[in-house]
Amino acid sequence: MSGLVPLPWSTVNGTPCYTVPPPDGHGPGPVGALADAWEDAQVLAARDVLGAAQLWLASGVGVDGGRLRAGAVRLVWALVRVVRVAEMRGKRLERVDPGEAARVEMARVLLGHTEDLIVTGNAETCQMRYVLARLAECLTALVEIAEARGAVCPARRPNGIAR
């Protein structure tokens, strides 16, 4: 699939989607621009969720297990999307930093470990606070990776210039 650019979404069946860069090589093309906008929106939404999570973690008053669980659900939602953005942007790069790849994989592992705890709701408030803090740390790292990769993605460079 040489020359194809992976998109941050898949078909209903889970098959990856790709776009072809414009023949003149200028910019990402209309579908690529839509993908870039979707990715940027996911990263911005993740930043908003992180801001709220920092408030929940800083305040011990009035934040019960249910609110912490709701916050953790929002963090998981954001983390799943930012992992996808980081992975898609990584696929468009010629070389991926091994440390970044390890952090993306660690995010996937964390998601797997926290899913059951969050879904069942069988966690004490102190456990939910811990999960929320770990998810926030992980999301912070993945937002940084997604943004760094987005700044150097060849498909996002109009006329070959990084933005």
- What spatial form do the alpha-carbon principal axes imply? elongated
- The CATH level-2 architecture is identified as Up-down Bundle
CATH class wording: Mainly Alpha
Q: How are the strands of the biggest sheet laid out side by side?
A: 1-2
N-to-C span: 26 Å
What tags apply to this protein structure?
163 residues, mainly alpha, Four Helix Bundle (Hemerythrin (Met), subunit A), two-stranded antiparallel sheet, 6% strand, elongated, disordered C terminus
Describe this structure in words.
The protein is mainly alpha-helical and 163 residues long. It has one domain: Four Helix Bundle (Hemerythrin (Met), subunit A) (Up-down Bundle). The chain has four helices and two strands, in the order E-E-H-H-H-H. The protein has a two-stranded antiparallel ribbon. Helix 1 packs antiparallel against helix 2, helix 2 runs antiparallel to helix 3 and helix 3 runs antiparallel to helix 4. The longest helix is centred in the first third of the chain and has 30 residues. The radius of gyration is 18 Å and the shape is elongated. The C terminus is likely disordered.
What topology does this entry show?
Layout: E1 5-10, E2 16-19, H1 29-58, H2 65-91, H3 98-120, H4 125-152
Antiparallel strand pairs: 1-2
